Amino acid sequence: MGGIVGVIDYGMGNLHSVASALEHVGAEQVIVSHDPAEIRRADRVVFPGVGAIRDCMAEIHRLGCGELLREALEQQHKPVLAICVGMQALMDSSEENGGVDCLGLVPGEVKFFGAPLHDAEGARLKVPHMGWNRVRQRIDHPLWQGIEDQSRFYFVHSYYVQAQNPELVAGELDYGVQAHAALARDNLFAVQFHPEKSAGAGLTLLRNFLNWNGQC
Amino acid sequence: MGLAKRIIPCLDVENGRVVKGVNFVDIRDAGDPVEIAQRYNEQGADEITFLDITASHEGRDTTVHTVEQIASHVFIPLTVGGGIRKVEDIRTMLNAGADKVAINTAAIHEPELVRRASERFGAQCIVVAIDAKRVDDVDGQPRWEIFTHGGRKPTGINAVAWAQRMAEYGAGEILLTSMDRDGTKNGFELGVTRAISDAVDIPVIASGGVGNLQHLVDGIVEGGADAVLAASIFHFGEYSVPEAKAYMAERGIEVRL
To answer: Which member of B6, B76, B201 has the closest CB to residue A199?
Structure first.
């Protein structure tokens, strides 16, 4: 099941957890690399990310990971899963670090949650948005299979994604604002939460990714 | 309906073994941090905090190995604290699989460490641990000061002002332990918990003094904490994580069930 998974490593933070979780749910082999030859061997690709977007984008550009991702997505049509800052990096730009241009693979922006932030009842909300929040599934998708609507996933982020095209929104979250927790387009699925840290629901999503043929 | 309040069991680990062990009915090795972490994960704990109390330098390699083992088997967030002194220590723990590191005394000696670590690794993985004790003003106004060396050594630093400064420096979360309450089972020191929760925009974890489930509720409702950390009530089987969550949910607190 799943074949070879390539985890694109642009040197920002630890990918141990992502790799372990993929192995745990049955990946035959997990390659963590930014070497194009290695990633091209993979049957499917994970684009992770933690940390500040400016540093992430600098490393993504320096190591040619943007081209690598574009190739996997648009030429090889492999299933691709982007996680957290990996999802944010797909967008046009982010407000973080005074404004940073991102890869522009998905039209939309990455915005600051804002402080002070309040919920609908006026209660104060802390930033970063850290912990287990509900994800409202907006579409049927192979990656949601076996995961109940409104399941909780683990989030940790201060900036959130707003995609331009509402048809791409696969999941939403509420945290003072309505943010996009998951996006889906053709062979791409992107999540703001950390499936590798989201216990049962997260592991189910990763298992679904290993079984996914990239069709919606 | 939104973000759940978190329950975080805390393991004190020395040379790769959980100190004092746990008292679960069906556990094979009461001192094995990996097995205990797995059990808490199965119970529905929202995160695990691992406090390294290993004194020797050689023992630190064992700690790194333990973190690697937990991170390979437990797919919920893992925070590692204890003995974090420099950026290199943080990198080592993150590379071993920790999601966050807790910086305590080193932040007091060198506050810039928090700023550098946050810039390098991101605020999301930098927890500043604060050990506070109540030292009221002469006029009786409550005031809390930071103590080091297990609560023995005063620093003269106001805990609330320190929390604000650490948040400005890029801490992503505050782990607040009341040294007056730690080990007493009398409940959290709610005054300082509320004061710090109100003073900072980042999440606050309340710690120190949990003796029953109502204490967890009080930490959230009265103290304004975003998460509650406890050790002995879970380790010795007095209460399970599901019991704690059910109790909190019955009292209107949103938890992950």
So the answer is: B76
Residue A168 located in a structural domain = yes
Q: Is B68 on the interface with A (CB under 8 A)?
A: yes
Is residue B255 domain-resident? no
Put simply, whether B201 touches A (Cβ < 8 Å) is: yes
User: What percent of chain A has pLDDT above 90?
Assistant: 88
The catalytic residue among A56, A65, A84, A102 is A84
CB of A125 within 8 Å of a chain B CB? The answer is: yes
Tell me how many domains chain B contains: 1
Please count the residues of chain B: 257
B256 domain-assigned: no
In chain B, residues with a C-beta closer than 8 Å to the C-beta of A17 are: 71, 75, 97, 99
A154 lies in a domain? Answer: yes
Tell me, yes or no, whether B257 lies in a domain. Answer: no
Whether A216 maps to a domain, the answer reads no
Give the domain CATH number at A143: 3.40.50.880
Contact assessment for residue B151 and residue B131, using Cβ atoms and an 8 Å cutoff: yes
- Alpha-carbon separation of residue A129 from A119, B41, B43, B163 (angstroms): 12, 21, 24, 18
Q: Which residue of A has its CA nearest to B8?
A: A131
ipTM: 0.94
Query: Can you tell me the distance from the alpha carbon of B210 to that of B115, in angstroms, rounded to the nearest whole number?
Result: 31
Interface check A156 vs B, CB under 8 A: yes
Per-residue pLDDT at A49 exceeds 90: no
Residue A1: pLDDT band with limits 50, 70, 90: low
Q: At residue B55, does pLDDT exceed 80?
A: no
Quick: pLDDT tens for A91-113: 999 999 899 999 999 999 999 99
> Lowest mean pLDDT: which of B8-12, B119-123, B163-167, B207-211?
B119-123
In a domain, B13, yes or no: yes
Distance CA A154, CA A135 (A): 10
